[in-house]
Design brief:
Layout (H helix, E strand, L loop, with lengths): L1 E6 L5 H8 L4 E6 L2 E6 L3 E4 H4 L3 H6 L1 E4 L3 E6 L3 E6 L1
Antiparallel strand pairs: 1-3, 1-5, 2-3, 4-7, 6-7
């Protein structure tokens, strides 16, 4: 299982929206965070989100204990079971 937490602020809404376009991903809310969850890897394309680099690199609030970030660059964010 893979879980990523992103702070629910207007700048990050597109990250959650793009993640939710993947049918294997569910997006919910826990407190002030989007909870992005999947059984396998979560991959979010930065260009699809429209995020500028500063917002992109600061969007991650945390990952679950059983998840790890394997890519976070100008192209994509990839979180895998870990």
């Amino acid at each position: 299982m893979t879980t990523l937490f992103v702070l629910d602020v207007p700048e990050n809404t597109s990250v959650a929206k793009v993640a939710a376009e993947d049918p294997a991903v569910t997006v919910g809310q826990i407190g002030p965070y989007f909870r992005i969850h999947a059984e396998e890897a979560i991959v979010i394309d930065r260009r699809a989100t429209g995020c500028r680099h500063a917002v992109w690199y600061s969007c991650i609030a945390g990952v679950a204990r059983d998840s790890r970030i394997t890519q976070h660059d100008k192209n994509a964010l990839r979180v895998e079971p870990g």
